[in-house]
Amino acid sequence: MVATAQEQGHPVPGQIGLQPSVTPIMDSIHAFHDGPLLWTSVLIALLVLVLLIVVIVRFNAKANPKPSTTTHNTLVEIVWTVVPILILVIIAIPSFAVLTDQLTVPDGQRKYLGSNIFSFGDVEVPAAALTVKATGQQWYWDYEYVDQGKSISSSILSEEARQAQVPVQPRLLAVDYQLVVPVDTTVRMQITADPSGVIHAFAVPSFGIKIDAVPGKLNETWFNARKTGIYYGQCSELCGKDHAFMPIAVRVVTKEEFAAWMAAFEAGTVDDANATLPALS
Ligand SMILES: [Cu+2]
Questions:
Q1: To which CATH superfamily is domain 130-274 assigned?
Q2: 179-182 and 248-253 as β-strands: parallel, antiparallel, unpaired?
Q3: How close is the Cα of 171 to the center of ligand 1, in Å?
Q4: Which of its termini does the chain have fewer beta carbons within 10 Å around, N or C?
Q5: How far is the CA of 158 from the centre of ligand 1 (A)?
Q6: How far apart are CA 180 and CA 177, in angstroms?
Q7: Where in the sequence of the chain do the CATH 2.60.40.420 domains occur?
Q8: Structure pTM?
Q9: Ligand 1 centre and the CA of 240: distance in Å?
Q10: pLDDT tens per residue, range 211-262
Q11: Distance 239 CA to ligand 1 centre (A)
C-alpha cells in the first residue's frame, strides 16, 4: 500500500527522506543529498556533540575550579574560519552543477550528472520533444502544449468531488485535469504567471524540479520521466489565500497513449482526450 502510494509520486504518512526519483535530475538530488550533504551534516553534528561533551566533563566548575583566562588563539581562530569555508566550497561544487543541469534544457549533446554526481556528467538525455508552458493563476495552473496550440486549466478537486470520482488519489493534491506527458521523453517546461497576478512556483519533487513562476518572465526547466504514473507537486511560493490549494498533477503515460491522447485533444476537447486513457481509480 505504502509502496504503491510512493510509486505514485506523492508524500506518504511516516515518510523519511526524499520522494522516489523518476528523472535524471532527481537522481542527482538523491545522490547529492544521501551522499556528501547528509554525511557532512552528520559528521559536523557529531563533532559538535563531542566538543560539547568534552566541555561539560572537563571544564565544569567542579572538575576545573580555576578557569583559564585565555581570550585569543590565532591558530584555532584561523582553523575554525577556514575549515567551514572549505566545507561550503566543496558542497557548492556539486550543488551548482545540479542547478546548472536543472536549468539547461537538453539539446541531445550535453551530458547530465544523474546519480553519478562526481563523474562530471555521463547521463545522456535526448533533446526536448515536447514543450509545455505552465502559467500560475490565482489559484490554479494553466498548461499549454505550445506546439500543438492546446491548453488545459487544472484546478484542485473539492474533497467531495475527489471522494466521488477518484478516491485513491491523494487529498489536497488531486486535480480535475492533469498535465499529461509521455514517458521517456524530454519535456521542456516554460513557467510563468498571469501578468496581472502574483508570483507562484512550479515544483514536482519526483522530477526534481522547482522554479519560480513570475509575471512577465518566462523561466525554463525540463524533465524526462522514466516511469508512468501520476506525480504530484504544489505551488511552492507563498502566493496568496489559496496558495495551499493549487496542486500540480502530472500524469506520465506511454508514448502510444500520449499520441492517442493528443490526437483526440487536437480533434476535440480535453475530455475527449482523457477518455482515451485508462480510468484513474
Ligand atoms: Cu501559487
A1: Cupredoxins -  blue copper proteins (2.60.40.420)
A2: parallel
A3: 18
A4: N
A5: 17
A6: 9
A7: 130-274
A8: 0.88
A9: 7
A10: 999 999 999 999 999 999 999 999 999 999 999 999 999 999 999 999 999 9
A11: 4
